[in-house]
Amino acid sequence: MAEAKDFHERVMGVHEALGIPADYAARCGLPLVEEPRELVTTEPDYYGRQQRLTPEAFQAWSAMRDAAAAEGVTIHLISAFRSLEYQQQLIERKIQGGQSIDTILAVNAAPGFSEHHSGRAIDVGTLNCDALVEAFEHTEAFAWLQRRAAEFGYRLSFPRDNPHGIAYEPWHWCFVKTDSEV
Question: Each residue of 134-150: pLDDT tens digit?
Fold first, then answer.
């Protein structure tokens, strides 16, 4: 219980420092996302950076990536786990670049509310498509994910016109627990 309180206090401090409105959680409807107790190292992402996921999300990601490859479809990691501090730094860089907090929060969840904190969210890409662009929706990889990702416990988090006010992200998928998990 103390850990949850500490995390919540850290989030509120970060929000205050970034100028995130106090009613952010109520407005966006996103849940507070605590960081997991256990993360495992995945294969390096497309850029050669080490990524981490929860063991269950990594197992499901690996199976999904391999199933896609068996069908001739390439999907690769762009990013996975992000700490509260990483999300804060991401937003700080955008503020320093001249973006308003409202503009930023339309494309990035506020620190503490990003699915990436859970160690279950992944941003994926494919060959011949720039990373993290809407054009990903026109790829064979996206069509494959729409057909098959649920079999591996992954769902598209931010479809068009989602209730959270987050921009459409066809590359962002999150592992959700299945009935077979303990």
Answer: 999 999 999 999 999 99
Domain boundary assignment for the chain: 1-31+84-113, 33-81+119-182
Which letter does DSSP use for residue 67 in this model? Answer: H
Q: Are 32 and 8 within 8 A, CB to CB? A: yes
pTM over 0.90: yes
Cβ(93)–Cβ(65) under 8 Å? Answer: no
Task: Report, as an integer, the average pLDDT of 173-181.
Answer: 75
Determine the topology of domain 33-81+119-182 in CATH: Muramoyl-pentapeptide Carboxypeptidase; domain 2 (3.30.1380)
C-alpha 45/C-alpha 36 separation (Å) is 20
User: Given pLDDT bands bounded at 50, 70 and 90, which one contains residue 43?
Assistant: very high
> Do the Cβ atoms of 134 and 170 come closer than 8 Å?
yes
Q: Is 52 exposed, middle or buried (0-12, 13-18, 19+ CB in 10 A)?
A: middle
> How far, in Å, CA of 141 to CA of 69, rounded?
10
